[in-house]
Request: fold
Amino acid sequence: MPYDAALTIAQQRLSQLSADTVCDKCGARYENGDYFIPWFNRETALSGADITLKILLLHYLTADGSINETKKLIAYREIAPALFYEPNFYKRAVLPLAGFFGKQPQRLIETGAALGGKAADMGDASVTINVLPRIPLTFIVWEGCEEFPPDGNILFDKNAKTWFTAEDLAVLAGAAVHEMIAACGK
Reply:
């Protein structure tokens, strides 16, 4: 589905919901006709987001997701029908994560902390960040060696699949990794 059509459908869906209900459920704020959603450690105006992030935020605002984290981490492949999207997820999110942070894993922890995350105890370095109020992601990298290149993974709280489709989770993970890479460069 082209971005414009997806954007229109999501905007129509949001217009049918009560702003108070949406904000309470999603941890967002509504003011002067615009939604403000915490994205990493800063508030992002829906109206100012680029089209990809705007569609993700609209899907988040209109989802019937669980507000309680399960504290159970799952891999992307555990999100049905994720196997269809797994190569895209790997290319869009895992490869950039491993490529950028795999040679210097400590940068992942430092960048994650700067974005409101907490170090986790997986791989050579890992960090869990609430990229959206109800959506924590755990980013993991392995440094690699002479025989193996750096590698990585991204784990989701099991509740993520109540908020997003498998395709949206691949896009979300990719957008999150690019946000982290951009933050590391600042």
